[in-house]
Amino acid sequence: MLNRETDSEKKEESFWRSAIQKLKRVKRPEKASRKVPRDRTKMVAVTLWSSLSALLLFSLLSVLLSVNTRSAVNDIKNNSNKPFDEAEQKISVTAAENFLAGFIAEYVNVKNDDDSIDKRKKNLESYMVKHTESDFDDEDRFELDGLKGDRQLNEYSLYNVKEGDKESLFQFKVSYTNLFPVEKEVEKTVKDGKKKKKVKEKVTENEKAEKQMLLNIPVTNKGDSFAVSAVPYFTEIYDLKGDIASTSKEKTRDEYTGEKKDAIETFLHTFFEKYASEKKEEMVYMMKKPEALQGSLLFSEIKSVKIFETKKGFEVICAVQFKEKENEIPVNEKFTLEITENSGQYYVNQLNHQ
Fold it and tell me: For 168, which of 5, 52, 98, 287 is 20 to 30 Å away at the CA?
């Protein structure tokens, strides 16, 4: 009985052992690794908004470009439809040169004869601009008082043109001859009875002096019409590196009448004497931008002067007369000077030919 139970237990134990071993031999299926797909919605959104922004920017640029182009086209059309303003037309150098041909001949040629002088003055005035207001009377600008000879134009050529806002300065290199009488003492042999003797006599002979200078003529125009805007003036011929400045003057100003007036007038007399006689290099002590006639003309007198006080010193407007040294033909010119003072000494900061 006991053996049966033991055998039965052994069989049961052997069954479970066999079952366990079979279970161990059974392989569990490996878990399949499943990949989770990435979320691409953010990338798609960014790409979409970027494309829309770029499209909007290009559209805006296209609109602006179209507006600017249309505006430019409209400006061109408007300018083409505007009436032509002759005053804004650039001056024709060729036409102005032809206009000035007669003026140059009238101005340079001088004959010591009353009728010729009157005719010259009348002809020159016909070329001039008529001013309603001026600091000086224009009646005597072509007067020839005290001349002692003639002047003949030999040839001229256009040297330079300097264009300004309201006028242009035409510069001509002119060659001319001064004819003037010279009193000389000569020795002659005359009969004295049967003998001959030498005596001295005074005779008058005509002499010549050839000269070359730069004739400066301010010219204004309205379309193809021209006029000389101020009296021409002579200067030395330069090497085409020079410059002439223009100034605008006030219509109504009170003249300076202070204690320095006499000193300024004395300085002006000294200055223009040196301006006429000294070399350009010598004028550096009296003016900022030196220039001089270097003896080509003689200083005669300051015919009129107006002094105005400014913040930096004084502005002087004066009419000065020079003369040809051979035959004393007068040359009248107007100047505007900007003058400063330092310890009682005066200095020309700027000189302008009017």
Answer: 287
